[in-house]
Specification:
The chain is an alpha+beta fold. The chain folds into two domains: 2-103, N-terminal domain of the delta subunit of the F1F0-ATP synthase (Peroxidase, domain 1, Orthogonal Bundle), CATH 1.10.520.20; 107-178. The chain has helices at 2-21, 25-40, 42-49, 55-65, 72-83, 90-105, 120-134, 165-178, and strands at 107-114, 137-144, 152-156, 159-162. It has a four-stranded mixed sheet. A hairpin with a 2-residue loop joins strand 3 and strand 4 (159-162). Helix 2 (25-40) packs antiparallel against helix 6 (90-105) and helix 4 runs antiparallel to helix 5. The longest helix has 20 residues, at 2-21.
């Protein structure tokens, strides 16, 4: 259903952006999975489709059922869905979130700080080399810092490669002091 997908997209994008900003993609994936699985339970599904309960009460009940598995942000997310009477979109939101998460996990944000502006050829070869090394699509962000004197510092996830002149001089000084 294209209409459900269209309506669910802003919610999925908002949750994904929040999770990515907090470096909590896996945590949100787990919490959304718990919420969706609980909502699919036959008894819970009847409760959530009941016209006798207001949407906020449905969200509160679902939140209560998942209390030990979700955090306050997930509860707020449920209330946001309920405020717009969109709890029925939970499964579609989860599907779209997981699609964006899978796509994000195949890319790597790399920050490079260089002593001078990189040429397009240097940028291209750097992206190709890093893509091969990490087996991911590289999203490169570069900036210039003249204090490096030469070379560059590359930050790719948890990996830091210091190929700057300043970094090499610091290592040389440290080595000389230890001798």
């Amino acid at each position: 259903m294209a209409e459900l997908a269209t309506i669910a997209r802003p919610y999925a994008n908002a949750v994904f952006d929040l999770a990515k900003a907090d470096s909590a993609l896996d945590e949100w994936s787990r919490m959304l999975g718990v919420l969706a699985a609980t909502a699919k339970d036959e008894t819970v599904a009847i409760l959530l489709s009941s016209p006798d309960l207001p949407p906020t009460a449905k969200a509160a009940k679902l939140s209560e059922l998942c209390a030990g598995e979700i955090d306050d942000q997930a509860r707020k997310f449920l209330l946001a869905l309920a405020d717009h009477d969109r709890l029925s979109l939970l499964g579609e939101v989860v599907d779209q979130y997981e699609a964006r998460r899978a796509q994000a996990l195949r890319s790597l944000d790399v920050k490079i700080t260089a002593a001078y502006e990189l040429t397009p050829a240097q940028t291209g070869s750097l992206v190709a080399a890093l893509g091969k090394k990490f087996d991911k699509e590289i999203v490169l962000e570069s900036r210039v810092d003249a204090s490096l004197m030469g070379g560059a510092i590359i930050r790719a996830g948890d990996v830091v490669i210091d190929g700057s002149v300043r970094g090499r001089l610091t290592k040389l000084v440290d080595a000389l002091v230890q001798v």
